[in-house]
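re: that chain from earlier
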Amino acid sequence: MSHRPEPLPEPGQTIPDIAADVVACTRCPRLVWWREESARNPPRRFQGQAYWARPLPGLGDPTARVLLVGLAPAAHGGNRTGRIFTGDRSGDFLFSALYATGYANQPASIAPGDGLRLTDAYVAAVNRCAPPANRPTPQERDNCLPYLQRELAALHRLAVIVALGAFAWDGVLRALDALGHGRRPSPAFGHAAEAQVGPYRLIGSFHPSQQNTFTGRLTPAMLRAVLRRAAEAAGDE
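^ sequence. v structure.
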């Protein structure tokens, strides 16, 4: 891999430390502009709502054994609500599956303060700002990957990583490579694909985007099966 994320985190950094740095980040001018432009020009159904319009930290259990990684927040989903995978159809699909498999205490993530709790799971993304057309540039990806690196280092019980889509799979491999867990050749992405990368079991899933869920490429049963496999693999560690 030709691009490498930035230096390793200092020892002792916690999930709250990382979250504070994520929220304050302005490293990608195009993404700063887009997240704020999206807030200034919401679709009619969201007009009058106050948008978060900042980068999104991860969400979940700091003692999690399972990490789920997505692509980036949606402009009118997480960028609006201030919580990752929240406020759009992808998030609805994901949290329903997390609830069905015992990782979440309720089937929906609506907004911060709604009582949602995750157990043994932590949810993050390769990019923390909403990108235009859901396509971060390689430089924007690399600017953001150090946050994922730091989360990997801070999640001390982590055993399994579920990559939601090929972009997340690639991003996770890059972050693990920077942490000294490179693997050659790089394992190929696929739904339910598995690879051992350093101390982690990496499992792939199609992303819960509408283009996958509305077409049946990813069904609720398929995602639940991946999450149950993640629990099984975490228990084997």
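The CA atoms of residues 7 and 146 lie 7 Å apart.
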